[in-house]
Amino acid sequence: MSAAPLVDVKGLTVDFAGSAKPVRAVSGVDLTLAKGEVLALLGESGSGKTVTMRALMRLLPKSARIGGQVRVAGRDVLALAPDELAAMRGPVVSMVFQEPGIALDPVYRLGDQIAEAVMRHEGASRSQGRARALELFERVRIPSAARRLDNYPHEMSGGMRQRAMIALALSCHPKVLLADEPTTALDATVQIQILLLLRELQRELGLAVMFVTHDIGVAVEVADRIAVMYAGRIVETGSCARVVQAPQHPYTQGLLASRAGHVFAKGERLGTIPGSPPDLANPPPGCAFAPRCKVAEAICTKDLPREYQAEPGHVARCVRLAPAPATVAA
Amino acid sequence: MLIYILKRLVYVTPVAIGVSIVCFLLVHITPGDPLSAILPSDATLELQEQMRAAYGFDKPLPVQYALWFWKVIHGDLGTSLATGRPVASEVGRAVSNTFILSTTATLIGFTFGTFFGFVAGYFRDSWLDKLASGISVLGVSVPHYWLGMVLVIIFSAQLGWLPPTGAGPDGSGGWRPDLEHLRYIILPAITMSVIPMGVISRTVRALVGDILNQEFVQALRAKGLGEYGVFKHVVTNAAPTALAIMGLQLGYLLGGSILIETVFSWPGTGFLLNAAIFQRDLPLLQGTILVLAMFFVALNLIVDVVQTALDPRIQRG
Questions:
Q1: How far B235 CA lies from chain A's nearest CA (Å)?
Q2: Which of A63, A127, B129, B160 could bridge across to B120 with cysteines, CB 3.0–4.6 Å?
């Protein structure tokens, strides 16, 4: 990570101008993504992970107000004109959607949907676009690829559709691939295949990948680094291994405890985090997790904790990591 | 595709036969003796019986139906009681006039309807949407004969720009595609177009709003398409439904324009139906209704086939 990171986000905020009170879905996210790195953005529903990711390519509804700074491959994304933004989407950043069944145009042939992107960005002819589509279909290992190019999305299974979606996302050789829970809509055996495929393509193409998921198992499978999000903020960031082995933030600890992955004795109860996430229209002062935190202190509900370093490259927003104040001996 | 069309044709046959039975029965259930309209009131009982036998009204209904049906499939719809001319030629002329009027009206309505619908759908909840939706609600709710009369008052009576009634300068004759006849079709066509315009624009507004909210539109933007590129996809997605609505509207207009044709004295099927009802001209009434019903059946078939051709999600089987 010596060179400038491919993705550099500082103080990102996203507000949705709701009917009554604006909702701050993302409140001050900093993150970086280097070339060839895989970052998993981990969090529960409504934690702002998908919004954060979509803000990277400004793919948010008109009611969204994006603040802060977003730089992707040297471009100031928030300052781009509409045509510059469109030109960036595809060749620089592209996205694999959660549900390929609804993210592909139902009345266009898959080959044409890919060819369209190639034609748009590279000024290629339709046949050149289709040739690229065929290449990509083979690359993502869709059987009888040539025939499948003429399929409509509803003619394929969920796993095959997601492969086609990945092929579409890769069609213009992006530098950064955003994957929004790409395996959530699939069943377990297909999930693994898609994850392995993504991992393999990422290594071969040297892609920077940001992977949004709520599944720690998935994050561990693909990621180099993990960023845990809660209520619109990143509460813990670190290497995949360290975050899982030595979680620092109580929320991360709770998430890991609520996994059913380990073999546990019959009759033993699964760990849970009591309570529910805060209302983002009325966020609590201080640490957003404090009301649910077992180890919260008085200060937690007053001031927003800053990031403390637990070890090099591993930080968490929790006051318990604050170095002990140098008390003056009486 | 060919097999699909053949299959649909087979399915349509029982529908068509059912429609013909209903047509036949409807007319025969209505009270009143059809012959009383053409016979002088002092006609002898003997003469009445004679006429009854001549038109076949003395036979039992099923037999009458069978005879009628046999003739119908040979292209003979009987003879008009009022004019003594073959029903088929009367209906044929009226149908061609109505067809021209309703097609023109549907095309006008479809053009403006899709335009307003797209504007309203794209700029949902803006003043443009309210304006476009307001126009279309007005189109659906204004009584059309009233609109027709208002247009006649303004453009014919006051301004004298356009002829108020008829299909051409030579009286009640047929419509021909020339400049002189074109002036006659403008007012009735505009009046009539208001109906499909309203329906189509409301449907298209809902369709476009729905399509724009779908995830795949986000995905299209994510692959770098601009507004025009996305628009093409929206059109392709909206087309099957919009065309289906247009087809059905054309069907309604082909059969349901009695009021407008009467207001404008347009020599079409509605006008003919009106005359047939008032003159108790049973064969003419029967023939007209049957032809109109068959139009509707045929149109539905065409709509289905076109929609299947356009929308890959519909099974061709």
A1: 11
A2: B129
CB atoms B312 and A152 under 8 Å: yes
**Which DSSP helix (H) or strand (E) runs through A146?**
helix A145-148
Domain ranges of chain B: 95-268
CB-based contacts of B170, cutoff 8 Å, min separation 6: none
Domains and CATH numbers, chain A: 7-239 (3.40.50.300)
pLDDT exceeds 80 at position B18: yes
pLDDT classification of A329: cutoffs 50, 70, 90: very low
Contact B224 A86 (CB under 8 A): yes
* Alpha-carbon gap: A306 to the closest alpha carbon of chain B (Å): 34
Provide the pLDDT confidence category of residue A37 given band limits of 50, 70 and 90.
very high
Nearest Cβ partner of A105 from B233, B240, B311? Answer: B233
* Alpha-carbon gap, residue A247 to A236, rounded angstroms: 8
Nearest Cβ partner for B222 among A57, A87, A105? A57
Q: How far is A11 from chain B (nearest CA, A)?
A: 23
Mean pLDDT of A129-157: 91
The partner residues of B218 in beta bridges, in order of sequence, read none
Q: Which residue has the higher pLDDT, B24 or B203?
A: B203
Cβ contacts of A90 on chain B, cutoff 8 Å: 222-224
Kindly state the tokens that stand for A290.
């404090």
Amino acid at B267: P
Asked if pLDDT for residue B42 goes beyond 70, the answer is yes
Q: CATH 1.10.3720.10: does it fit domain B95-268? A: yes
